[in-house]
Structure formats: C-alpha cells, structure tokens
Specification:
Elements: E1 2-10, H1 14-32, E2 35-40, H2 45-51, H3 57-64, E3 68-73, H4 88-98, E4 103-109, H5 119-125, E5 129-135, E6 143-148, E7 153-156, H6 161-176, E8 181-186, H7 192-204, E9 212-217, H8 218-227, E10 234-237, H9 239-250, E11 260-264, E12 270-274, H10 291-303, H11 308-323, H12 341-354
Parallel strand pairs: 1-2, 1-3, 3-12, 5-10, 8-9, 8-10
Antiparallel strand pairs: 4-5, 4-11, 6-7, 11-12
Helix pairs in contact: 1-10, 1-12, 6-7, 8-9, 10-11, 11-12
This protein binds 1,4-dihydronicotinamide adenine dinucleotide and magnesium ion.
Magnesium ion (MG) binds next to helix 9.
Length: 355
C-alpha cells in the first residue's frame, strides 16, 4: 500500500512523540511492504513563530495532499498572551473545521501491566475495552445565538438530523469491527435534541441488524463508567456529553501518556493525535511517553487505511514492552524499568521485529 501522511509535530513534547510514531510507521512499512510518504508541516506555536499563523496555508496544502494527518500537540506559555487568532489551539480548531472532522474517537482500554496493586483498579478496570465516539463539530459549543448581558447568558443547543445520522453511522461501523454493541448516550427525558437523537438512532439501527443498540441517559452513563466500565463496547454521544464522559473514561487506564485519539469524517480521512497536550514541564528531556502518539499512528493504519493486522501488531508491541517492565517515568512509578523516550521506541521496534 502507498500512502501519504502529513506529520505535524507542533510544540513541547509534540516533536519528540511524533518522531517516535514516525519511526514505528517506518518499521511497519519495511516489514509489511508498504510505502508511507511522510510530509512534515508546522502547526501551533511553532507555526505562529515561523508564519504568524497557527495553521499556515502551506500546512493546509500538505494535509490536503495527504491521506491522513498525524499530529503531536500544540501550546505553551510562550504564546498564552497572544490574541485569539495567534494562539496555538486555534490551529487545532481550524484544522478540524477545515477538514470537517466531525467524529472524535477515543479508545479506552485497560493496560494490565499498569493496573498495579490497587484492588479497586484490578477489580473495576480489568478487561475494560471500549471506544467513545463523540460528535465534535456541532452542539452546544457551536450553536448560535451565543449571547450574554449583565443579567443573563444564552448558549444554543442545535442538532440537525444529518449531523446525528453521520455520527451514529460512524459508531455502528466501528461496533461492527468489535463486539457489536452501541450504547447511545442522551438526555431524552428532558432535551429536544436528545429526543431527535434517539429517533435517528432508532431509524439508523435498522441498517445495522448485526449491531445491538442500547440507550442510556447521560447521568446513568457517568455512574456506570465508574461502577462497571466493562459493560461498554462503543459509546456514541453528542459534543458536550462526550467531552465530559471521555475525560471521565480516560482515567480508567491510568496515564495520559497512553491515550490515542482520532478525529475523522465519513470518507475515512482523519487526524490522529495523542489525548495529552504539549507537556512543557518535561519537553526536551527525553521523558515523554511516546505510547499515545504511537497508538494514534496505529489508529490511523486501522481507521484510515484499513490495515488491521499492522495496527494490532503496533498495539501488541507497546503492550509487550510494558509487560516486560519497561516504560517512561509517568507509568513506571516505583522507579524500576524507567527508560527514555528514545529507548522505549527502540524496544517497541525490537518487539515488532520479534512478532
Ligand atoms: P498536558 O497534557 O500537556 O500535561 C499534563 C501533565 O501530564 C503534565 O504533568 C505532563 O508532564 C504530563 N504528560 C502529558 N503527556 C505526557 C506524556 N506523553 N508523557 C509523560 N507525561 C505526560 O496538559 P497541560 O499541562 O494542561 O497543558 C500543557 C499545554 O498543552 C498547554 O499549552 C495546553 O493548552 C496544551 N494542550 C494541548 C492539547 C493538544 O494539543 N491537543 C491538549 C491539551 C493541552
Ligand atoms: Mg475535555
């Protein structure tokens, strides 16, 4: 397979973790006989410094000529006082909008090697393996009017049938490649948007008779994520509910340095990035955990290119290194087995070659 991948390292630890992911992609290309053309471009604070624009036109062009985007992270105190249009985060918001990346996908999977000795974690988090599909470009964060006066403020929650259809279809497609269950989260007992959401869900499910559907109110879901997260396979929900529930779910696995994510649209094009930020406190010290970036690259292979075997091989290699007792400082808290970013990647690649 021949693919072009836009690589946007960004700021802080972004360049360190994307370099790690690129090395893993190169190793996969060699081993499985693929050609990945990797095209680097600037985003975030680095792009502001270089081009006075957090998402320069050149970067958009590189991404438009690519089959998928791999991103590190953006942000840092250096740019915190910049006006809104020159803030690093603006680069991320703009790229999602430009490419209409409406579906945010976050897998949450227990990592046995990191569950430690906490009985609660062993009991509840063991065997958790779920994916949260969050609508990313509509809902309360974007609805108009957005207004305020001295005494009152208004946000608007709007969803169209089309917007709901395309996100629930994403969830159904993902469920088909997994355990075949979708839990749709809403607040249909009080919200009109949720009533429409549930209606659309019921309509679309007829096209996926092989997938089991369950409706759950968002407050119940928040509880169930803590008491019985194993019960979920694919969870699909609107923008704000998904924002909150995905952060809640992310603590189940333990470390921010382990969590990948994807923002995609229906034709398979997508942007893949770690959930974590630019971690300026550890940038440039070889301490960054590259797992989230490496696992994001695996998501890209699976979701945008349909390379399931290669994606699984990467995931198994990362878990293998952790099982062997090696990891960066954020996951190896007892001090034993701590390795640098670079050493960790070398071990992942060795593991890949052994598989
Ligand atoms: P952060 O995720 O960068 O860091 C939070 C804590 O986790 C820090 O102590 C950091 O050292 C640690 N950490 C994060 N990723 C790690 C990794 N891969 N390996 C080891 N340790 C890791 O969040 P924070 O500190 O709130 O934000 C820092 C900057 O990142 C800010 O400018 C923020 O706006 C930006 N940010 C960017 C995001 C993105 O690009 N998608 C997402 C979140 C924050
Ligand atoms: Mg959030």
């Amino acid at each position: 397979m021949e693919k072009t991948i836009a690589v946007l390292p960004g700021d802080g630890i972004g360049p360190e973790v994307t370099e790690a992911a690129v090395k893993v992609l190169q190793s996969i290309a060699m081993r499985y006989g693929h050609t990945f053309h990797l095209k680097q471009a600037a985003i975030g604070g680095t792009a502001v410094d270089q081009f006075e624009n957090p998402l320069p036109q050149e970067t958009i062009e590189v991404c438009e000529a690519s089959d998928a985007i791999l991103l590190g992270a953006v942000g840092g105190s250096k740019w915190d006082r910049n006006p809104a249009h020159l803030r690093p985060e603006k680069g991320l918001l703009n790229i999602r909008k430009h490419f209409d990346l409406f579906a945010n996908i976050r897998p949450v999977k227990a990592i046995p090697a990191l569950l430690g000795s906490s009985p609660l974690k062993q009991e509840v988090a063991k065997e958790v393996d779920m994916v949260i599909v969050r609508e990313l470009t509509s809902g309360l964060y974007f609805g108009e009017p957005k207004q305020r006066s001295e005494e009152a403020a208004v946000d608007t929650l709007v969803y169209t049938r089309k917007e709901i259809e395309r996100i629930v279809d994403q969830a159904f497609e993902i469920a088909r490649t997994r355990r075949g269950k979708v839990t749709s989260i809403d607040k249909a007992n009080v919200l009109e948007t949720s009533k429409l959401w549930r209606e659309v869900m019921e309509e679309r499910m007829t096209a996926y008779p092989d997938v089991e559907v369950e409706h759950m109110l968002v407050d119940s879901a928040a509880m169930k994520l803590i008491t019985d997260p194993r019960a979920f396979d694919v969870m699909v929900t609107e923008n704000m509910f998904g924002d909150i529930l995905s952060d809640e779910a992310s603590v189940i696995t333990g470390s921010l340095g382990m969590l990948p994510s994807a923002s995609v649209r229906s034709d398979g094009f997508g942007l893949y990035e770690p959930v974590h930020g630019s971690a300026p406190d550890i940038a440039g010290q070889g301490k960054a955990n590259p797992s989230a970036a490496i696992l994001s690259a695996a998501m890209m292979l699976r979701h945008s290119f349909g390379l399931h075997t290669e994606a699984s091989a990467i995931e198994a290699a990362v878990m293998g290194v952790l099982d062997d007792g090696y990891g960066t400082g954020d996951v190896m808290r007892n001090g034993k087995g701590i390795v640098s970013t670079e050493k960790f990647v070398t071990k992942v690649i060795e593991e890949l070659e052994r598989e």
